[in-house]
């Protein structure tokens, strides 16, 4: 069938769904920029079915009146509203119908266990919101207090799995109930069976998670908490149900900020009890790496990993989401002496703490057959982004692994396990928030290159097999990080996005060695220029991935650990890998790194840098798209001359951007001379200097020079909430 996706953003779910449907259907994508854009897309695509995997806007009536339109709702049949996952993670168990009353009870009563199940519904769009015929629904067990569970991880995990199953079944059911036209295309659809609403796909049971109601939008300020009476569990739920958007709006630190993280610390005796005396609730009692821990009224602690300043009407865009410690330090709400005094070290041997606590890097050593020692390197970085400091911790952890390898007890393999994300490359939020984004970009890319160098040089020198185990999505430098390993294992449900060009970068991480080495020069170039996501099966076909294992979560972890001994046996028996045909000497690596960083320096510092700085700004600060890339909106690619900006030769040409800058300079100077009354004391030279400011001057100034939010710690939470711009 011809299928049109309408999406607010082409996110992880829509990418996975596209990869699942495209082998057997003709799928094209349109970003829901406006009603007119959506209507035009439908007219051009002439779809048999419109699917909305992630859509925050209402579908125009003219579309669902003329095309069967399926909405993917992240809740079971009967759940209505735009904040389905927020409410369920906050603790809504279905026992109270009135939302206002429910909020009061959740605020003033001890926490309830929450729902045991949740689900996803695929329903047909009609006039009434979330009330159309149901074509499929799936449900899954849920523990809202599961360690590390946030709204975003719930969405990427069980919600996405249930959504894909439901959409595939719904499409199949529509095909089965359709009459076929003379041209062989489905043209008339029968009504959905009532059983589709009442019985889930897999277990054929009604929804097991309680009663369902209409729930309104859960606002950021409604997630606020009171440290004097809310327990660690309650505070954690309020933060996690808004992570990663919009966050929990709180004046905990004296200034209205969005807070993220929410992990409950369960260290016996309380957080940092060996150093910190008993403190009043809300006090910062521990700092580890980039996160901080506050004490709670029940003697536990809650970790705040990231913060974001509130967008005021005077701000041009959203603020970046940045690590809590550096963010509070910049705001003057924390000082360097407090950081030193409150620092709470992780275990010195890099082992994982037996108790729930903030730990973003850890190492697990396992022995196979009493002889083979394997190191599993885990990391859990927020949204998969790897900042300079996090890359430094990975280098330290790799040094530790090498230090444990001795002639009597050698390390035979290191397995990169990553976390809920494997890696998405450099940390664009930290870069965007820095005093000099170009300089921080340079530092970050060099540090992640240092990590990859261990995989290509340091571990091979000691005959240590390197295995990349992709249990979560990977993008850009994260794919190159995995590709540098001897062997790459991928879970069947992940998405890989190898290209860098979408954010305006050439890319580094030694991809000029690993991609051609694994895929061949022609295919490597095609992968980098296509800028489209890949399934692990597609990646295996071209050589980026060596093995695909079915499953996710604990099941996938166990399969990886079972697979590692077989890989070790094949190495010992002389089976070669891609590196055997490549020159990986220190000289060859140095040449590749120099070549890549030469191009990256153009992306950071030359006239070409405008493409990266502007795209990073738009990505980090959630600037609305103006159009859908033609590589996704294939219904708009009318001929071979219809190209995306990234597909044109000018996209890489520094001289093109230089000429563009010169042209814009002249245009702005003429505008200054023609449209402004020039004071007699103001010379043309001064006007020229003003006009000659960088086109995107905010990228070359300190953040505080561009944005001027109130910094006073005395600003009230009520005033902050009043001035908040809806997200």
Textual characterization of the structure:
InterPro entries: ClpP/crotonase-like_dom_sf (IPR029045), Enoyl-CoA_hydra/iso (IPR001753), Formyl_trans_C (IPR005793), Formyl_transf_N_sf (IPR036477), Formyl_transferase-like_C_sf (IPR011034), HoxX-like (IPR047180). Residues 229-313 form the Formyl transferase C-terminal domain. With 727 residues, the chain is of the alpha/beta class. It folds into 4 domains: 2-198, Formyl transferase, N-terminal domain (Rossmann fold), CATH 3.40.50.170; 220-342, Roll (Methionyl-tRNA Fmet Formyltransferase, Chain A, domain 2), CATH 3.10.25; 361-597, 2-enoyl-CoA Hydratase, Chain A, domain 1, CATH 3.90.226; 655-695. It contains 24 helices and 23 strands. The protein has a 6-stranded mixed β-sheet, sandwiched between helices. Strands 9, 10, 11, 12, 13 and 14 form a 6-stranded antiparallel β-sheet that branches. α1 (12-21) runs parallel beside α6, α11 runs parallel beside α13 and α13 packs antiparallel against α19 (586-605). The longest helix is centred in the first third of the chain and has 26 residues, at 151-176. The two termini are 35 Å apart. Mean pLDDT is 91; it is low at 691-727.
């Amino acid at each position: 069938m011809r299928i049109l996706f309408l999406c607010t953003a082409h996110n992880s779910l829509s990418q996975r769904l596209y990869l699942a449907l495209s082998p057997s259907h003709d799928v094209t994508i349109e970003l829901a920029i406006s009603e007119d854009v959506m209507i035009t897309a439908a007219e051009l695509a002439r779809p048999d079915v419109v699917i909305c995997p992630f859509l925050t806007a209402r579908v125009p009536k003219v579309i669902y009146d003329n095309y069967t339109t399926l909405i993917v709702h992240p809740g079971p049949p009967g759940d209505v509203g735009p904040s389905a996952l927020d409410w369920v993670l906050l603790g809504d168990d279905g026992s109270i119908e009135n939302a206002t009353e429910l909020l009061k009870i959740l605020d003033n009563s001890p926490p309830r266990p929450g729902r045991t199940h949740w689900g996803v519904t695929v329903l047909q769009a009609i006039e009434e919101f979330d009330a159309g015929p149901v074509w499929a629904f799936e449900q899954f067990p849920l523990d809202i207090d599961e360690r590390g569970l946030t709204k975003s991880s719930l969405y990427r995990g069980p919600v996405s799995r249930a959504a894909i199953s439901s959409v595939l079944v719904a499409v199949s059911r529509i095909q089965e109930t359709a009459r076929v036209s003379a041209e062989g295309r489905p043209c008339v659809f029968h009504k959905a069976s009532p059983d589709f609403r009442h019985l889930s796909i897999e277990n054929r049971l009604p929804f097991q998670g309680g009663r369902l109601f209409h729930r309104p939008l859960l606002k950021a300020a409604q997630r606020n908490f009171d440290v004097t009476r809310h327990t660690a569990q309650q505070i954690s739920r309020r933060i996690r149900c808004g992570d990663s958007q919009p966050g929990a709006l709180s004046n905990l630190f004296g200034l209205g900020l969005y807070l993220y993280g929410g992990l409950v610390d369960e260290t016996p005796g309380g957080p940092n009890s060996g150093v910190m005396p008993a403190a009043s609730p809300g006090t910062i009692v521990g700092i580890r790496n980039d996160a901080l821990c506050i004490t709670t009224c029940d003697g536990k602690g809650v970790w705040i990993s990231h913060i974001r300043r509130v967008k005021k009407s005077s701000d041009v865009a959203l603020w970046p989401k940045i690590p809590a410690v550096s963010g509070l330090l910049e705001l003057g709400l924390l000082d360097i002496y407090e950081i030193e005094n409150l620092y709470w070290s992780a275990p010195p041997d890099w082992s994982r703490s037996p108790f729930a606590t903030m730990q973003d890097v850890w190492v697990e050593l396992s022995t196979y057959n009493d002889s083979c020692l394997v190191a599993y390197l885990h990391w859990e970085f927020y949204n998969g982004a790897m900042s300079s400091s996090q890359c430094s911790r990975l280098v330290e952890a790799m040094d530790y692994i090498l230090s444990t390898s001795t002639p009597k007890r050698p390390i035979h393999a290191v397995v990169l396990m990553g976390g809920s994300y494997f890696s998405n490359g450099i940390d664009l939020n930290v870069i965007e928030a820095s005093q000099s984004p170009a300089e921080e970009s340079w530092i970050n890319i060099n540090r992640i290159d240092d990590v990859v160098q261990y995989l290509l040089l340091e571990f091979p020198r000691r005959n240590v097999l390197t295995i990349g185990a992709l249990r979560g999505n990977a993008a850009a430098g994260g794919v190159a990080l995995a590709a540098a390993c001897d062997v790459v294992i991928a879970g069947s449900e992940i998405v890989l996005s190898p290209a860098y060009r979408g954010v305006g970068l050439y890319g580094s991480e030694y991809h000029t060695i690993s991609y051609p080495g694994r895929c061949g020069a022609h295919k490597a170039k095609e992968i980098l220029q296509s800028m489209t996501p890949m399934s692990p099966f597609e990646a295996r076909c071209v050589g980026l991935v060596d093995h695909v294992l079915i499953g996710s979560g604990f099941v996938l972890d166990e399969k990886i650990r079972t697979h590692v001994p077989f890989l070790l046996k094949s190495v010992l028996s002389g089976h070669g890998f891609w590196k055997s045909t490549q020159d990986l000497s220190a000289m060859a690596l140095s040449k590749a790194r120099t070549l890549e960083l030469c191009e990256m320096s153009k992306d950071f510092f030359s006239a070409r840098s405008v493409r990266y700085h502007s795209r990073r700004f738009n990505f980090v600060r959630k600037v609305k798209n103006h159009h859908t890339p033609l590589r996704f909106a294939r219904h708009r690619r009318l001929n071979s001359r219809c190209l995306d900006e990234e597909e044109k030769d000018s996209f890489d040409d520094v001289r093109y951007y230089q000429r563009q800058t010169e042209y814009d300079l002249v245009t702005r100077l003429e505008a200054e001379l023609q449209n402004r009354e020039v004071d007699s004391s103001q010379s043309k030279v001064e006007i020229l200097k003003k006009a000659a400011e960088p086109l995107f001057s905010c990228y070359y100034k300190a953040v505080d020079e561009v944005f001027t939010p109130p910094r006073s710690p005395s600003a009230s939470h009520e005033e902050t909430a009043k001035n908040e711009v809806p997200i």
